[in-house]
Amino acid sequence: MENTRNTLRLEALRTRWTPEIDAMLVAGPENRRYLSGFTSRDDNFTETSGLLLITRKQAFLLTDFRYLEWARQEATGLEVVMYSQSLGTTLAGLLQGQEVRILGFEDAYLTYRRYQRLVQAVAEAGPNVEWQPVAGMVEALRESKAPEEVAAIRRALALTEETLLEVAAALAPGRTEAQVAWEIERRLREKGAEDLAFPPIVAGGPNSAKPHHHPGDYRLQEGEPIIIDLGARVDGYCADLTRTFVLGPPDEQFRKIYTLVRRAQARAEQGLRSGMDSRDADALAREVIAAQGYGDAFGHSLGHGVGLAVHEAPSLSPFKDRATTLLPGSIITVEPGIYLTGWGGVRLEDMVLLHEDRAEVLTAVGFFEW
Ligand code: ZN
Ligand code: ZN
Predict the structure, then answer these.
(1) Among positive and negative, which fits the CA dihedral 12, 76, 146, 324?
(2) What's this model's pTM, rounded to 2 decimal places?
(3) Domains by residue range for the chain, with CATH
(4) Measured in angstroms, how far is the CA atom of residue 302 from the centroid of ligand 2?
C-alpha cells in the first residue's frame, strides 16, 4: 500500500521535471516524507536525517546509522543507503553509476555549507555534475490533498477545536498567557495529538497586536482582546485555528473590529474556489478591511496551505511574485486580521478545502455574535 503510494508520488514528480534534469536531490523534511514515507522530521535545520536521490528509474534514501532501521521500515520502494563518514562521498558514488549530468536540488532546504560540501565531494569523485536549483517542485505536488490526507487534517482539526473550546471556557482574568499556552499543549497531547503543529500563540491585550506573539507572563484582563492560535499534528498532518476572545462585555471598538474581520473572512470563504489567482483570493477579504480604512493594519497574507507543514503552498498573498492558481483539493487557511498598536488585534482563522465551485469550510467552531 505504502509502496504503491510512494511509487505513484515519485512518478508524479518525474513527470514534472524539465527534460534537462536527470535526477533530483530532495532535502526538505516534508518533501522527503511525502515521497518516501519516512516520517523523521529535522527539528534542527543544520542536521539532516536523510536526503532523497531520485533518478529517472530509481529512488534512494541516503541516511546515517541513527536512522537506518527506521528508514528501512518506512521508506518502502526506495533503496535505503547508509553513509558513515561522508554524505557527499556516498552521493558521489551513487551519481557515478547513474549517468547523472544535471542534478536538481532544493535550494530552499540545503544549507549553504551542506551544499558546498556536497558539490565538492561530488567534484572530487569525478562525476561531471551540474547542480541546478529547483524551487517548489515537490511542494506543488503536495498542494492538492488525497482523500487520506484530507481525513488526517480533519482529525487534527477536530482535536484542535475541542481543545480550543475547553481552554476558552477556562479563560479568566489574572491567568497568564503562558499558563493558557501550557494548558493548550497539555490538552492537545492528552487528546492524542502526536505533536503540536506549532507552539500555540496566546496574546492578551496590547500583545495581540503582534501576529506571532510568544506567550509570556502577561495577565489576561477583562475587556481586552485575546488572540489564541493553535494546532495539533495528527499522522503527520497539521491543523491551524485562531479565534479572538474577550473577557466580560466587549466594548464598541472590539465589536467593530471583530465584526469587520469576520465579515472579511466570510466574504473570502464564500468567494474562494480552485482556479482562482491567489491574489484575487487575498483581495476578497482585503478589500472589505481596506474599505473601512484598516488596510495598513492587515499586514500579512490572507492565508496559506496546510498539510505536512503548517505553512505550505499556496500562499494567499497580495504580492505578484507569490501568485499562483489555486488547485482543487488544496486545504488553506482564511485568516484576516486587524492589528492596532497599543490596543491589540483580532484574527479569525478557519481552514477550507477548495473545490471547483466553492470552498468547504472545515472549521466548525463558531464566532461571537451581537
Ligand atoms: Zn494559525
Ligand atoms: Zn495560519
Answers:
(1) negative
(2) 0.95
(3) 2-142 (3.40.350.10), 144-361 (3.90.230.10)
(4) 9
